[in-house]
Amino acid sequence: MEKNSVVSALLNYVKGEQRELDLLIRRLQLTECKDKYAADVLLQMKDSVSLLNPDCFSVVVQELLKVSWFNRSAEVVKLYHSFIVNLVSAHSTYTEAVLTSMVALFMPKKGVTAAVEGTSQEQTDEDRQKSYEAAMIHVHNAIASVLKAVPSAGHMLFSIIHDKFPYIFHKDASVVEMYIQNILYVTKYCPPIRSQILSLVIVKMINLDTRASRELIEEANETDSEDEELFDLEADATPKEHVDESRNKLTEADRLDTIMCVMFNYIDSVCRNPDSSLNWEATKKLYLELLSLFEKKILPTDECCHTQYLLFYICSLKPSLADGFMDYLWKKVKNPNEDKIYRIYAISYLASFVVRASYVSVRSAADAITLFCEWIHRYISTASHNSMHNDIAHHGTFYSVVQAVFYILAFRQKEFLEMGKANAFFLSLNLQTIVTCRLNPLRVCQPVITRTFASFVRKHQLAFCDAIIERNNRLTVPIAEEVSGPPHLESYFPFDPYLLIRSSVKVADLYRVFDGTAIIDIELNKEQDEDDFVQEDNSMVVDDDFGKSPAEAAFLGSISPGFNAPIHSLR
Questions:
Q1: In what helix (H) or strand (E) does residue 541 lie, and over which residues does it extend?
Q2: 495-523 pLDDT per residue, tens
Q3: Which of 14, 160, 252, 314 holds its CA 20 to 30 A away from the CA of 241?
Q4: pTM for this structure?
């Protein structure tokens, strides 16, 4: 290519002679364009950016930004990189167009199987994925250089990322997956917009999560199993295609599963050093950002089933994070200025977290229950006698905290009994005062939690609830055709069993499963005298409802100033 031919074409373009420049750009855009020709054109373009006045050459620049450059030789990649940096340095007006063209590459039109043009047809999908990821490094390096040249372009970049986000139900799931991976990678070199990008991804996750309830996931999996059984009964049927057992049958759940895998890997990449040790400063910053997003996005949404496990996972990295999360939730619960519904959600999260997180020690659980009971006793002593009745609307937070105590004690009873000075701990809770108070929490708490707790405290003579339960049952005997019972608290336990298949490997070892040791008397014998309840009942059986998901039963299972303090010191 002749020297200064690009400059000549640009000058002629200003005079109205467009053919020469058009031919040059069209040849550059061809897939079969030789790297030598592309390098010569880009070298001259790089040195001529001062001529590319937006008033005359905006269309030309748009065409140059369509050139496939990121999968070419190292020389072409370097020259294109220099060209766009020089371009935005000379004409900041082009910054939005340049960033838009780069972000568009986060979402390959043909998906992962053909992500990079020019790759061999004999390559496997895995090889193409690796080629695409290698090419994307060049794109990210270019974006980082543009942001360095135009420091104020960060918010413009996020706006483009937001607008370009693909449809969450795109026919090619890998397109959404790769887009999310790429925008999360952006946070590594553009930290100021990390919270915004995380918020964008979490909102998309919540949209999927609320459409994929545990009931729908289980129903879809059961329906698929039934279809397979029916198919097997048909002797003359055509052999069925292999079913991928690693995929969720519900589309929304499968998409959410993919994003959860990406997010868990992202947390690891931020919080872990190359030698797998914990990077505490990076971990703390990410935790605080996720906690802020939890408060704004996740906590107000009561239908979330899995998105909250991002907090569950990051809290497992260090005990002080788990203590900080519990402290944040508890301060929200006891703050009378908080909206009541958020206080109830917060205690639901706290109880479920203490029960299900295997990294929450029994000592921490005991300290949490101690705080709960102290608050309960203060509430009982200060509540007006005129309001001493089962009014969930008025006393909803109180009943929720009491149910949290019952739930944690029943679920982790074996650990509490084996704990040092267990008797002193149980006596300090003064459970009998709670169950016999005029607010009558045994009538409002979820029946399966009430039954399990009553059996536990009766067996160990910590409190006696059966007479109260019997009285409550008599007060709610249906009359005539009216079958509606007393109002009960909703059974919302955010950390119910994790049902997403592929991403479950990240939480499986962190999750406490109910071991079936809770023994309860499902049907109280009305003919027994009250004294009989203190005798050891050898006929007790395990309640099959306890610890199951809602589909199987009714029960399952702020950036705090005291971030580094253990929960038992935050009173």
A1: strand 541-542
A2: 999 999 999 999 999 999 877 655 444 34
A3: 252
A4: 0.84
